[in-house]
Amino acid sequence: MRVAIAGAGAVGRSIAGELLENGHEVLLVDKAPTAISVERVPQAEWLLADACEITSLDEAALQRCNVVIAATGDDKVNLVVSLLAKTEYGVPRVVARVNNPKNEWLFNESWGVDVAVSTPRLMSALVEEAVSVGDLVRLLRFSHGDANLVELTLPPESALAGTRVGDVQWPEDTSLVTIIRGTRVLTPTPDDSLEAGDELLFVAAQAREEQLEDLLSARRD
């Protein structure tokens, strides 16, 4: 898979390193000469160019990319890169970094963003996830379909503790994707039972989140 990353700062280089370790082809693009540190990620391709310019993106051959990641520290730049990648080059998957949570509402399909990653929001969510039991925590927002990746740790008093996954009437537009039980990561099957303390990850429509939280946190009679 070919991935172009706009922004060769610490975030962009870190993402590039992970992708390269997983066998992907990576191009880092940045307009600042000081950001071009080939020795830090020598396996990647590097391009000194402004990712907001069509000529630069032509040079980067963005039409050959499977994924574009807008990872600069400027939300305006990330939005422009995302829009150009999607509308001018038809990139199938566009992931954008949100630096200021106040701008998160802009990072949606109309700007070409498939997945928006808000670092401040994610960090606060992880703090909430670490200390909350029975409360739904939103980890990641997907632009298409207004869906979110959410997590809830099943409390001991939950009415669903000990219930088979296949016997639960989940809300519409909701899918249980992973059960984290201690150090194990389980792909749920209908025969798996839910246990108190399970960390449950769902992809759910935002409109269903409250209903999902009520279902999972409902106490036994």
Task: Name the features.
eleven-stranded mixed β-sheet; 221 residues; alpha/beta; 5 helices; 11 strands
Could you explain how this protein is built, in words?
With 221 residues, the chain is α/β, with parallel strands linked by helices. The chain contains five helices and eleven strands. It has helices at 10-21, 54-59, 75-87, 119-131, 209-217; strands at residues 2-6, 25-30, 45-48, 67-70, 93-98, 115-118, 137-142, 147-153, 174-181, 184-186, 199-205. Strand 4 (67-70), helix 3 (75-87) and strand 5 form a beta-alpha-beta unit. It is elongated. It holds the Pfam family TrkA_C. One of its GO terms (molecular function) is potassium ion transmembrane transporter activity. Residues 1-117 form the RCK N-terminal domain. InterPro entries: K_uptake_TrkA, NAD(P)-bd_dom_sf, RCK_C, RCK_C_sf, RCK_N, Trk_Ktr_HKT_K-transport.
In short:
By secondary structure, this protein is an alpha/beta fold. It is 24% helix and 27% strand.
Topology:
Layout: E1 2-6, H1 10-21, E2 25-30, E3 45-48, H2 54-59, E4 67-70, H3 75-87, E5 93-98, E6 115-118, H4 119-131, E7 137-142, E8 147-153, E9 174-181, E10 184-186, E11 199-205, H5 209-217
Which value, in Å, is the CA radius of gyration? Answer: 20 Å
SS strand fraction: 25-35%
Number of discrete helical segments: 5
Helix content: 10-25%
* Unreliable spans: none
Structural class: alpha/beta
User: Can you tell me the overall shape?
Assistant: elongated
Reported for the largest beta sheet, the result is:
11 strands, mixed
The residue-averaged pLDDT reads 87
Instruction: Report the count of strand segments.
Output: 11
Span between N and C termini? 52 Å
H and E string: EHEEHEHEEHEEEEEH
Instruction: Name the strands of the widest sheet in spatial order.
Output: 3-2-1-4-5-6-7-8-11-9-10
